[in-house]
Amino acid sequence: MHDLVSRTIEKFLDAESVPLQAGADMLSPGQMLRDAALHLGKPVDELIEDLGAWLVRQDEIWRLLRFCGRDFLDFLLRLDELPERIRLVTDDLSVPEIALSRSDDGLLWVTLSDGPAAWTALLSGLLRAMADDYGALCVITPGEGGLCIDVSDSSFAAARTFHLSSKAHAP
User: Locate the Heme NO-binding domain: which residues (predicted)?
Assistant: First the structure.
């Protein structure tokens, strides 16, 4: 698991043009992110949120996520399936369980079971990118034990076209 996560972080930092220090491949994933955040002058949680958004831009991951729902609200309702979908790809990663609830005022709350706090930041970035992908206008705010999602307009913009196969519209 350490190798998969480290390689993903290395690819993310390279894509974001963040130079890695010599021997960075020997650092833990957390240390790589702390060093990169220090270099960029931003909080680690913010960098991890950016990593979550970057993951959505990876075609294979995007397809796995878009397969979860026809629109953003449907995607959110199936968010509890995400840990199991990740286990389809790799069973080496310990993913916290995800639960969705709706408060009386209509806000959606995503809570994560026990796990590192970094999962909340990663999920925040992932949800932000998926909301954009689906064309939904929402505000995602970290809160006690999870994220608060206020969807103001689920069809604010045109959603990105999704085909199950990447070859569906090949020239």
Answer: 31-131
DSSP-derived secondary structure for 86-126: HHHH-SSS----EEEEE-TTS-EEEEE-SS-THHHHHHHHH
Query: Residue 47: is its pLDDT beyond 80?
Result: yes
Domain boundaries, the chain: 2-42, 59-153
2 contacts 28 by C-beta, under 8 angstroms: yes
Determine the topology of domain 59-153 in CATH. Answer: H-NOX domain (3.90.1520)
Spatial strand order of the sheet with 98-102 comes to 98-102, 108-112, 146-153, 137-143
Q: Quick one: tokens of 166?
A: 């990447």
112 contacts 123 by C-beta, under 8 angstroms: yes
Q: What is the pLDDT of residues 96-114, one digit of tens each?
A: 999 999 988 889 999 998 7
CB atoms within 10 A of CB 90: 11
Residue of 28, 73, 33 whose CA lies nearest to 49:
33
